[in-house]
Amino acid sequence: MTDRDHADAVLEHVAVLAFLYYPGIQVDDPTYRLADDTEWCLARLGDVSDTERERIGALIARAIIDPTATREELFTALADLTGGHAAGHHA
């Protein structure tokens, strides 16, 4: 299980990458790989099963490309990994 700090770090990294991403980035930068960005975020996740890592990785990739469509699902998945504590919500 990951903790809230890990989940927050993942969300922060996804937000930065989503802000920088744009359609056609591969044309402007042929070395760009979404998989590298996804791994950069996953490195902050903490200790989770391979199945969860794969599921969260797919959500991260989708959130980078289209944050509006995916952010709630990613947020919920990360909250579930923290034992139900909503990532990003501070009391």
How would you describe this protein?
The chain has 91 residues and is an all-alpha fold. The chain has one domain. 67% of the residues lie in helices and 0% in strands. It is built from five helices and no strands. Helix 4 runs antiparallel to helix 5. The longest helix is centred in the first third of the chain and has 17 residues. The radius of gyration is 13 Å and the shape is globular.
Q: How are the elements arranged and paired?
A:
Blueprint: H1 4-20, H2 25-28, H3 34-42, H4 50-65, H5 67-81
Roughly what percent helix?
Answer: 55-70%
Number of helices: 5
The general outline is globular
Strand content: under 5%
Assembly type: single chain
Q: Estimate nothing, just give the exact number of structural domains.
A: 1
What is the string of helix and strand elements?
Answer: HHHHH
- Mean pLDDT over all positions: 90
SS elements, strand count: 0
Largest sheet, if any?
none
Q: Which regions contain 5 or more consecutive residues with pLDDT less than 50?
A: none
Please identify the structural class as seen in this structure: mainly alpha
What is the rounded Rg?
Answer: 13 Å
Q: How far apart are the termini?
A: 21 Å
